[in-house]
Amino acid sequence: MKAFVLAKAFYSSGDVIADRRADYARMLDDAGDHAAAADLMAQAMDMVPLWAAGWDLLGQLHEKAGNVAGAIAAWRQLEALDDHGVFGARLKLAAHDAGPAGEGTAVGYVEALFDQYAPQFEQALVGKLGYRVPELLDGLVAAEMNRLGLARFERALDLGCGTGLMGERLRAKVDFLEGVDISAAMIAETARKKLYDGLHKGELVATLNARRADADLVTAADVLIYCGALQPVLTALVPALRAGGLVAFSLEAHDGEEELFLRPSLRYAHGVEATRNILLASGLDILRYETAILRFDRGAPITGILVVARKPVLELAAANDGDAGGDVAA
Fold first, then answer.
1. Pick the CATH number of 2-100 from 2.40.380.10, 1.25.40.10, 3.40.50.720, 3.50.50.60
2. CA 75 to mean position of chain CA atoms
3. pLDDT averaged over the chain?
4. The pLDDT value given to residue 261
5. Under a CB-based contact definition with an 8 Å cutoff, are residues 158 and 196 in contact?
6. What is the CATH code of the structural domain delimited by 121-318?
7. pLDDT tens, position by position, 207-253
8. Which residue from 9, 244, 285, 301 could staple onto 313, CB 3.0 to 4.6 Å apart?
9. SS3 content of the chain, % helix, strand, coil (to 5)
10. CA distances from residue 235 to 35, 221, 229 in whole angstroms, order as listed
């Protein structure tokens, strides 16, 4: 059902003349005349006011033309029509201070985004944007393995596995490597590589909540940037780790005091100091905490936070039991 909704929404308004005007609007946009493109697209929307994708495009054209009020008005129309959340209307309004961002993942939007992106994902991300997160995280994990005297991991969970870029790095270090992604199209691309011992489609927090202390490594490369608040993720993640297990992930960074904010890219940026405090409050031991250039976006470098943390070998509850006079096994 969702595939039908997406196809209908993205590819046609159902009106030939409106579609033709939308095509001309895209041509004007490509030529750099964003205001004229928006005017023509507005004419198309007068003809097909229930076309969700048309409102989304109109909002983008107004935004490019510098007409933020027009963009917000278009995205409010979109919000009323976007029942499945695939266009991210709420996020687009929030990024322009026209509504709340919320703290959780906009599941419909992220799923639709990566379902469309899957066939070109690696070429665009690695080839054009200089994406380095799997390489950087793998280097930090390898350094900690060496320091801790770890030869291999028994079971690893790669959250938001995408097309397996992180899995390619982990494969030689892990006995059983499992990948999970919200996008079925991404899972299909990854399956062709035969990197993972297990692959399944699922939302991140729900996947973690279904597990209990069975992974000694969890990775999330450029995943939590779509999840908003970090604390709910860590609340689900820590119980999924074995005692002594490692977690390695990346975030986009900002230097302000806020815990996070939503960027116009519709990705969240997390505060460098606030994130450190959240990690400590979650009960994880921070092993590595570094900032680095993760990739480029429209020619500008994107600075991020790289984290490797460890679940304590002796959990706090067990330690407190021992202090209370209970017998501790030798």
1. 1.25.40.10
2. 22
3. 87
4. 87
5. yes
6. 3.40.50.150
7. 999 988 899 999 999 999 998 899 999 999 999 999 999 999 999 99
8. 244
9. 50, 20, 30
10. 46, 18, 11
Residue 91 and residue 316: Cα distance in Å, rounded? 38
Euclidean distance between CA atoms 159 and 173, whole angstroms: 16
Q: Beta-carbon neighbour count of residue 100 at 10 Å?
A: 9
- The rounded distance, in Å, linking the Cα atoms of 41 and 201 is 36
The beta strand positions in the chain, using DSSP E, are 153-159, 174-181, 198-201, 215-220, 241-254, 260-262, 268-271, 285-297, 300-310
- Residue 279 tokens, joined: 């990690």
Rounded to whole angstroms, how far apart are CA atoms 8 and 15? 12
Q: Does the predicted TM-score (pTM) go above 0.90?
A: no
- Where do the domains of the chain lie? 2-100, 121-318
Look at residue 34 and tell me whether its pLDDT is greater than 90.
Answer: yes
Run of H or E including 321? helix 316-323
CB under 8 Å to 133, separation ≥6 — which residues? 166, 221, 222, 250, 294, 295, 304, 306
pLDDT of residue 10: 54
* Residue 81: HSE in the Cβ half-sphere, 13 Å Cα cutoff: 18
Residues 143-170, mean pLDDT to the nearest whole number: 95
Asked if 289 contacts 305 with a C-beta cutoff of 8 angstroms, the reply is yes
In angstroms, rounded to a whole number, what is the distance separating the alpha carbons of residues 179 and 194?
Answer: 11
Q: Which region, left, alpha or beta, applies to residue 58 given φ > 0 means left and ψ of -120 to 50 means alpha?
A: alpha
Q: How confident is the model at residue 123 (pLDDT cuts 50, 70, 90)?
A: confident
Q: Which alpha helices (H) appear in 118-255, and where do they start and end?
A: 121-122, 133-148, 165-170, 184-191, 204-209, 231-240
